[in-house]
Amino acid sequence: GAGVSQSPRYKVAKRGQDVALRCDPISGHVSLFWYQQALGQGPEFLTYFQNEAQLDKSGLPSDRFFAERPEGSVSTLKIQRTQQEDSAVYLCASSSFGVGGQGPGDTEAFFGQGTRLTVV
Amino acid sequence: AQSVTQLDSQVPVFEEAPVELRCNYSSSVSVYLFWYVQYPNQGLQLLLKYLSGSTLVESINGFEAEFNKSQTSFHLRKPSVHISDTAEYFCAVNTGGFKTIFGAGTRLFVKA
After folding, report:
1. Which residues contact A62 (CB under 8 A, 6 or more apart)?
2. What is the rounded CA–CA span in Å between residue A24 and residue A40?
């Protein structure tokens, strides 16, 4: 597609329920990022993939959070046993890092509209 | 560790007035600096970026930002705002790795 697509746009989960959030990056983009944006805050880094390799997962807040990108395109962020503090907008971004020798830090990232997760 | 501070959470301004959205960062190494904009019900979009070279960078819609290394600032300015500039603006910093650190955002509200 033309941009980064995330689904669902909205998700309401009961506390303790598992959820899976999907990200379709821009076709051909090597890099994929997940961010968490709490209400009134800026996005906070969760994890980074380069193709199918998860190179940095230092931002995942607990072992209940798990991300994968098995074929180097679509990615899923899974949250097990959701808690109220997990309520946030989860943003996915992709970039073309890996093409032309650009590094991940200086390459424009294209963001999806996010998934708003509400845990009740 | 890097951090970004956006000093104003909300900035109301009248149409055609000038505006400045302030951003300060902390980092012990060289940085790349970004401003992203988020219009209502849309994803974050890159507005402009500083990578190296000229410290003054411009966007296609009239915004500009100046990298000031001594003051560790990257303030965003526009000489005359439009109603359509109403959005949330995020300043961000990256030191070349995988993590981009974002500020908490400034909501610009342009009044007629």
Report:
1. none
2. 26
Residues of B within an 8 Å Cβ radius of A: 4, 6, 9, 32, 36, 41-46, 49, 51, 90, 92, 94-105
Closest residue of chain A to B30, computed from CA coordinates: A105
Alpha helical stretches, state H, A3-114:
none
CA B31 to chain centre: 14
- CA B60 – CA A115 distance, rounded (Å): 29
- State the pLDDT confidence band at A114, using cuts at 50, 70 and 90: very high
- What's the residue count for chain B? 112
**Cβ–Cβ below 8 Å for A106 and B95:** no
Q: Which residues of B touch A105 (CB under 8 A)?
A: 32, 94-98, 100
pLDDT 10s digits, A72-100: 999 999 999 999 999 999 999 999 875 43
